[in-house]
Amino acid sequence: VWKDTLSTEAQDLDYGLLADHLAKNPIPNEVILDCTASDEPPKQYLNWMKKGINVITPNKKLNSGDLSQYLALKQYQRSSYTHFFYEGTVGAGLPVIFTLQHLVGSGDKVKRIEGIFSGTLSYIFNTFGTDSRTFSEVVIAAKEAGYTEPDPRDDLAGMDVARKVTILARECGLNLELENVPIQSLVPEPLQTVSSAEEYLQRLPEFDGEMQKLLDDAEQAGECLRFVGVVDPVNQSGSVELRRYPKDHPFAQLSGSDNIISFTTERYSEQPLIIRGPGAGAEVTAGGVFSDLLRLSAYLGAPS
Q: Exposed, middle or buried: residue 43 (CB in 10 Å: 0-12, 13-18, 19+)?
């Protein structure tokens, strides 16, 4: 029966009509969960909240997008009883945003945030150098295993990490724009404009020598390569780059596609606060979204 109803009464999505329908609903508390990666829903968040609709999302586009739009929404959030939660934007289900908000809200001063925020790049650099495979072979294996986007350049260009750096920087109070985060892309310049992922992967072996030299230089110094995002509140900056770490550093101890985030603060100065675990995947991201939903319920008066 529902199929017949859908075929005869379905309407094209209209964000305004959706918000009006929810706002007029007799149920006292409404929430929209935006689990897309689209640019369009985030443009509606402020309008939805002004209608009394709470918003939960793992979509990074609002929090790393236009600064004025972000600040307008956060200002409205602070002056209203409508909530906006986004734990899933960094680290999927890992409590990264909540931890940072706890640190800042309890009076701690963040000196530095450093992390491996990409499960894809975590896997690649946890694997590269552990056997005889070249960098291009590791990238191809990562794609075949489903770790990368259909076009691996989307991961290796570092933009996703830059978005997460921007989000965390803004949580620290920095008015940072995404375009002001320098990114060390791992896509060789001649391959950035090739027409397809297939051509990129076919030509990537031409550049294996460059990555192998970086690995060899690190190994000779007793170090490893890791692709990291950095938030530097002291200098009011952020960056995304390939760095070297000693073999006994926590970032060198990762396996698989895990994420790891290190918070150095006045309170956690000698020993940084570390969060580590799976930072991508449908199940853990859903866990982060559901955690925000439970948090919203508590804010709206559910038993604690």
A: middle
